[in-house]
Amino acid sequence: MSTIGTFTIRPLDPEKDAELLHRWVTHPKAAFWMMQDARLEDVEREYMRIAAHEHHHAYLGLHDGEPAFLMEKYDPRHVELVGLYEPEPGDVGMHFLVAPTDRPVHGFTRAVITAVMEELFADPATRRVVVEPDVGNKAVHALNEAVGFEPEREIDKPEKRALLSFCTREQFEAARGASA
């Protein structure tokens, strides 16, 4: 997606990035992130917890060197989906959040999710990406479908009713080829 710019991903620094993340996760467009009422300390504490977790990692995505999105990667055998489905070897869970902007760029969010998927599949051990967005988040369901995710079923998580969806490397490549 060279017309949109260059994406890079770096590990999140909970202390340094907390203020930026706080603005993002409390923005009305981030309602499905479920941190609308979080204080700065809450955001810092949550990302310190993730940073210390062996099976959950947070990254800051940059667009042309500027912070533009948040990406979380987790092992669904240990985090988020424990007991809610039968994980397969090579499953990797993912969350992403695009920074709010006053100047939306057409195709930007799709470019972000594509960059996130490329990053996850850059690891040869990743065979399938697992997501569990809120059933009401129609925009993200459409984005997920656009990059190859197939919904499996609705599940009940403690904080939400979620749509469990999967995307294999082959499904991602096919979706990417179809959109080229």
Number of DSSP strands?
7
What general form does the structure show? Answer: globular
Report the β-strand fraction as a percent range: 25-35%
Radius of gyration: 16 Å
Strand ordering within the main sheet: 1-2-3-4-5-7-6
Helix content: 25-40%
| Structure classification | alpha+beta
Summed up, the helix count is 5
For the residues shown, what is the average pLDDT?
91
Largest sheet: 7 strands, mixed
* Amino-to-carboxy terminus distance: 9 Å
Low-confidence stretches: none
The SSE string, one letter per element, is EHHEEEHEHEEH
Question: Helices, strands, pairings?
Answer:
Blueprint (H helix, E strand, L loop, with lengths): L6 E5 L2 H12 L14 H13 L3 E8 L2 E9 L16 E8 L9 H14 L6 E4 L6 H9 L3 E7 L4 E8 H11 L1
Parallel strand pairs: 4-5
Antiparallel strand pairs: 1-2, 2-3, 3-4, 5-7, 6-7
Pathway: Siderophore biosynthesis; mycobactin biosynthesis
Keywords: Antibiotic resistance
Function: Acyltransferase required for the direct transfer of medium- to long-chain fatty acyl moieties from a carrier protein (MbtL) on to the epsilon-amino group of lysine residue in the mycobactin core.
